[in-house]
Design a protein that fits this description.
The complex is a heterodimer.
Chain A lengths: L1 H9 L9 H15 E3 L6 E2 L4 E2 L3 E2 L6 E9 L4 H4 L4 E4 L2 E3 L4 H11 L9 E6 L5 H13 L4 E5 L1 E2 L3
Parallel strand pairs in A: 3-10, 5-8, 8-9
Antiparallel strand pairs in A: 2-5, 5-6, 6-7
Chain B lengths: L1 H11 L6 H15 E3 L3 E6 L18 E6 L5 E3 L2 E2 L2 H13 L15 E6 L5 H27 L8 H10 L4 E3 L9
Parallel strand pairs in B: 3-6, 6-7
Antiparallel strand pairs in B: 3-4, 4-5
Helix pairs in contact in B: 3-4, 4-5
Classes of the chains: A alpha/beta, B alpha/beta.
Chain lengths: 155, 183
């Protein structure tokens, strides 16, 4: 009898936490792989429309983003309530697009410059006027590969 | 002596209990600073810019499928109002022309889908229409690929995809928008 109680008293009842860091690290790596760093804080409200014929954008380094939407509330005093273009992290006009594209182009390897895609992240309530102006600017700047960012359609 | 070294080994172990906390901190940092990848969209190839307007007259009217979207987001397809849901079937019938009607495209190679919108059209509606056109073309390509090779278009080799594209070239033209509506 005494033999039993002695053994039980000595055995530690704690669960080993040695593998806990490994589990957390696995979670960490998972999130690092499936997510991307937020590169620019959005100053315009962008809610992309839904579509079914979607293509995935492959190479992050070959994509530049053009946001179009109504300025968010904290920027309305300065930027107004009309839809605006955001390039990088500042409000821009269509005249800034060629320089923006060129700045991105010089960072890309020469052989891959033809693969550069412009991702247009446009709010679904914006009217086509401003989008057409951006499209014209892109065509004039020689940037023909364009991706209209959209969410998959729920059916 | 032996006893002493054993004791040393025990005290030399690093306490790994806080490792989990450090990893948690890292995890939370990444959760906050990143966004989940949702980079999908409709891929478009814009035409090069040219100053002179394109010559529309060289195409026969029966080969052109015109879609107009006005500032009230209504559709006018070949002169008649149409619902968005019927658009895809309409385009497919127009391109393939299974009954050989003389008001639809002569062949699928000659068929052109022409889109025109107003500056006041909502972008969401525009993309929906564009998506329908794209969907119609993709379905036709899949049908053609299945008929020829027994596989969907995306599983074909580059060479096979080209032969499909020769039968069904994606001819989508976008006209300069009108500016009747309010932006």
């Amino acid at each position: 009898m005494s033999k039993f109680s002695k053994k039980r008293g000595k055995a530690s009842p704690e669960i080993s936490t040695a593998s806990l860091p490994d589990i957390i690290f696995m979670l960490l790596f998972f999130f690092m792989v499936v997510t991307v760093l937020r590169d620019a804080s959005l100053k315009v409200k962008v809610q992309t429309p839904q579509a079914s014929e979607l293509v995935k954008l492959e190479k992050k380094s070959l994509v530049n983003y053009i946001y179009i939407g109504v300025p968010t509330e904290e920027h309305r005093e300065l930027a107004g309530t009309k839809p605006r273009i955001q390039l990088g992290d500042k409000f821009s006009t269509t005249g800034d697009i060629p320089l923006f594209l060129e700045n991105h182009r010089v960072k890309v390897d020469e052989r891959q410059r033809g693969l550069i895609t412009s991702s247009l992240r446009v709010d679904k309530d914006v009217t086509m006027g401003i989008v057409s102006d951006v499209k014209t600017a892109l065509r004039k700047a020689g940037q023909f590969k364009v991706n209209y960012s959209a969410k998959p359609k729920q059916t | 002596m032996a006893k002493k070294s054993a004791k040393d080994r025990i005290s030399n172990e690093i306490n790994a209990g806080s490792m989990a906390d450090i990893a948690f901190l890292l995890l939370i940092f990444f959760l906050v600073t990143t966004t989940i990848v949702e980079d999908k969209g409709v891929l478009v190839r814009l035409p090069p810019w040219s100053e002179e307007p394109p010559d529309v007259l060289k195409f026969k009217t029966r080969n052109v499928y015109s879609i107009l979207v006005n500032a009230n987001n209504d559709l006018l397809v070949r002169g008649e109002p149409k619902k968005l849901e019927d658009l895809k079937e309409g385009i497919k019938e127009f391109i393939m022309n299974p009954e050989r009607r003389d008001d639809l495209a002569e062949t699928s190679v000659d068929a052109i889908v022409s889109m025109k919108n107003d500056r006041g059209t909502k972008y969401g509606v525009y993309l929906e229409v564009y998506n329908e056109v794209k969907a119609a073309y993709n379905e036709l390509k899949d049908e053609e690929a299945n008929r020829k090779f027994g596989k969907d278009y995306e599983y074909l080799t580059k060479e096979q995809q080209r032969t499909v594209r020769e039968v069904i070239p994606e001819k989508l033209s976008e006209a300069e928008p009108t500016s009747f509506g309010e932006e």
